[in-house]
Write a structure and sequence with these properties.
Structural class: alpha+beta
Order of helices and strands: HHHHHHEEEHHHEEEHHHH
Low-confidence stretches: 13-49, 143-155
Oligomer: single chain
Shape: elongated
Radius of gyration: 28 Å
């Protein structure tokens, strides 16, 4: 859903960007009036103007404000229509209604937090919509395009390389439909016993564990300040999760599943991120429009 929304947002802007680029180039081609004046000899009238007591001319009213405001309103309407035509996913509704986790979502903030208790443990799962903005699936296509150009240089292998590129493009299109990898910061705390900090990815309905840390001070696991995050870097992190004994990896994954880090969570996170990103974008559009109109 996120990729379709991104395409829908950017598509109407292509023509306007091209026209603005052409206009920008035409402006560059014209010699600047400031450059001209710097080479022209100063006249006596120019000296006199510095001491003029005549009233300064008022700056012309902003000409772009009204047009920008109308465009912002169009974007707000566009996003509103998309939201109206896209019901809340069942994965989000079911998770919020049946999950033991409590959701904390502060408007205007990128991070979302899920918390729950499990026996004497406090479990926190944090994720951020910044992952959507930082995700760049187009890199794969750019690399493939460069490779395709290199293959064309060989006339004998042109037909075969072209067929291979077409097949590869089909495979990549299937891969591009994969969900955005969403980073999870999972913290399991016990009173007076420190905390486990697990770094994982939620993607395509799976939880992929990357690192499994232990901190004596639970504050380091959360890393809410720059000082704590820096201090956590000096602590031995343990080996990469993928290098552990396979049976140990399985038991650690089961440990997380018992605490609610399950497939349901892996499906919920990217769907909820998509909803939140649209909500924050609409609010941003409204705030900018209100400022322009003020």
């Amino acid at each position: 859903m996120m990729s379709l929304r991104a395409v829908a947002r950017s598509a109407p802007r292509t023509i306007s960007r091209l026209s603005s680029n052409a206009l920008r180039q035409s402006r560059v081609a014209r010699p600047s009036s400031l450059v001209k004046s710097s080479w022209a000899p100063l006249r006596s009238s120019q000296f006199a103007s510095a001491f003029s007591t005549s009233q300064l001319r008022q700056a012309p009213a902003a000409e772009v404000d009204e047009e920008l405001s109308v465009k912002l309103q169009s974007e707000i309407q566009f996003e509103g229509d998309m939201k109206a035509n896209a019901p809340v996913p069942a994965s989000v509704k079911d998770f919020l209604e049946n999950s033991p986790f409590e959701l904390k979502d502060t408007p205007g903030k990128e991070d979302v937090t899920l918390t729950r208790t499990f026996g004497n443990e406090t479990i926190t799962v944090t994720f951020s919509i910044s992952d959507l903005a930082n995700y760049e699936p187009d890199d794969v296509y750019n690399e493939e395009g460069a490779l395709g150009e290199e293959d064309v240089e060989s006339p004998q292998g042109q037909r075969s390389s072209q067929a291979e590129n077409e097949e590869g493009l089909g495979d990549e299109m299937d891969e591009s439909e994969a969900g955005v990898p969403c980073r999870l910061n999972i913290v399991v705390e016990k009173p007076g016993k420190g905390a486990l900090n697990i770094e994982a990815l939620a993607q395509d309905g799976q939880i992929l564990v990357e690192n499994f840390y232990y901190f004596k001070d639970p504050k380091m696991a959360h890393g809410e300040t720059a000082e704590l995050a820096h201090a956590a870097q000096d602590v031995y992190p343990g080996p990469p999760f993928g290098t552990l004994d396979e049976d140990l990896q399985i038991l650690m994954e089961r440990y997380l599943e018992e605490r609610g880090i399950t497939t349901a969570l892996a499906v919920f996170v990217p769907d909820y991120m998509d909803i939140k990103e649209q909500r924050e974008y609409q609010e941003w559009l409204t705030n900018v429009k209100n400022f322009i109109d003020a």
